[in-house]
Amino acid sequence: MPLSLTLGGCSTSARLDTKYGGSVDAHIVGGSPGSVYLANKQKGKFTLRRDDISDVDYPGNVLALGGVALLGVGAYRLWFGDTSCASPGGAGICAANVVPAIVGLLAAAWGTYSYFRARHAFDDTSRPEPDQVMRPRPSHAPSGPMPGWRKPDPFADPRP
Known about the structure:
The chain is α+β, with helices and mostly antiparallel strands. It has a single domain, classed as SH3 type barrels, CATH 2.30.30.100. The chain is 38% helix and 19% strand. Strands 4-3-2-1-5 form a five-stranded antiparallel β-sheet. The model has no long low-confidence stretch (mean pLDDT 80).
């Protein structure tokens, strides 16, 4: 059980898989109708189009489940164990019965908070689109330079 809590960690970053086979680990900051706003240490703040996302692994779900299991073990030990904490010599037994329940409760609360915060940020579509999609260029537009236009020579002498 401690191994699953260690592997789950206290991470708040989500893993977003793309339709093209890649994946991105980042914090979900918010979103617009067509994009999701993300942030991580490597790239800073950036966006990913919602159409390009195939799957999202939200943070906190492993930690919440591990916390619930640890809370269950702690509650079982409190209910059926020797919880006489009044004697000075029973501090170790008391701690062995109480600590798993407290740690499990805190882990379940943090995991649930992280999960629903990221889920809410992903579902948010209140922000404006980060960049407008450009319309395709008309096919009848000239592909070359305009008549009478010459590209300046970058190596020419600036003094004529």
